[in-house]
Structure to design on (344 residues):
């Protein structure tokens, strides 16, 4: 075997990258100790700055240039993933750490009636009910409208009508949430007067924000369905509308469900439009079409603004909102898994 062949089959032992990482961490700690002291961000940055070129140089000498470039690319990808995960992990940790102090079964089953000042009692039951009402109304409006619009754009639309709808969807995607709230507020101001507040107004405001997200996500999922499936159905004499229902939508159901859940997650935490349209209340309002109603985003905002003990309830409300989104995503995964076509 030639020297070149021996060089090509040489590989670093599996523990080598970990040893280089440990050495890089030690170097970073030593350098930062000479200054103001080590910090998590500083250690991470210096570790990456030492680790990537050091491992690449060692690999270049032992394994060759091709393997070294592969290790460098892998290191950069992993580093990018870690950097992207830092805000998410920090956010979840901050909310959980702040919310567990007030989060309890009592918090989930009581409202704010009779709670004043810095009293430790009170919960977010009324805000949970209001959030479900407002988000449910928005979903009832936006999901069918978005799916039917996407079907038209992919399966039927053409010419100026398609271009106009696509442009309108693109413009609506960038609408600030406060503008959607002002639109819904002004609409009902003209129809019912300035004193009218209800979950219906908030639902319409959120539907304005939710619809373009549903349209875009469903449209992309429908375009991924192979045309061969449509043509096979047409060849068997299946009408177009039935082909869309039984073949196209059934094939894309997993992606459609994911897109719908992304749209719901997009609007369920909106605060600005709900401040204008539904306001806040201390008790449960089971009537979604009349009267002020509390929602979790507005509840969190108001409790945090009060400061003191109320901040604990604000963090607990934020934790509740995250749990609701997680449960909705779990339901979406179960739905997509159950209704997706089985591959044999």
């Amino acid at each position: 075997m030639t020297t070149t062949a021996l060089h090509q089959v040489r590989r670093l032992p599996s523990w080598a990258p970990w040893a280089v990482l440990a050495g890089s961490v030690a170097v970073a700690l030593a350098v930062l100790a000479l200054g103001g002291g080590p910090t998590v961000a500083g250690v991470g940055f210096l570790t990456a700055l030492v680790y990537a070129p050091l491992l690449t140089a060692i690999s270049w000498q032992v394994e060759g240039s091709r393997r070294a470039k592969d290790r460098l690319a892998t290191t950069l990808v992993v580093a990018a993933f870690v950097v992207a995960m830092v805000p998410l992990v920090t956010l979840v940790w901050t909310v959980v750490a702040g919310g567990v102090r007030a989060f309890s079964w009592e918090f989930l089953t009581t409202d704010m009636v009779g709670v004043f000042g810095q009293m430790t009692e009170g919960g977010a039951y009324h805000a949970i009910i209001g959030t479900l009402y407002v988000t449910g109304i928005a979903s009832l409006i936006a999901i069918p409208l978005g799916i039917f619009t996407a079907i038209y754009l992919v399966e039927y639309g053409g010419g100026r009508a398609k271009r106009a709808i696509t442009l309108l969807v693109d413009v609506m995607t960038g609408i600030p949430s406060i503008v959607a709230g002002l639109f819904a507020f002004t609409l009902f101001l003209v129809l019912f007067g300035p004193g009218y507040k209800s979950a219906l107004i908030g639902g319409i405001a959120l539907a304005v924000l939710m619809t373009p997200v549903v349209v875009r996500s469903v449209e992309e999922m429908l375009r991924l369905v192979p045309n061969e499936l449509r043509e096979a159905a047409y060849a068997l004499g299946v009408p177009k509308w039935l082909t869309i229902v039984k073949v196209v939508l059934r094939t894309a159901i997993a992606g459609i469900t994911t897109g719908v859940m992304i749209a719901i997650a997009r609007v369920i935490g909106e605060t600005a439009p709900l401040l204008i349209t539904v306001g806040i209340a201390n008790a449960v309002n089971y009537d979604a079409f009349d009267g002020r109603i509390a929602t979790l985003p507005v509840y969190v905002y108001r409790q945090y603004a009060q400061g003191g003990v109320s901040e604990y309830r604000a963090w607990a409300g934020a934790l509740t909102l995250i749990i609701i989104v997680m449960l909705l995503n779990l339901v979406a995964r179960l739905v997509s898994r159950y209704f997706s076509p089985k591959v044999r």
Summary: The two ends are 47 Å apart (CA to CA).
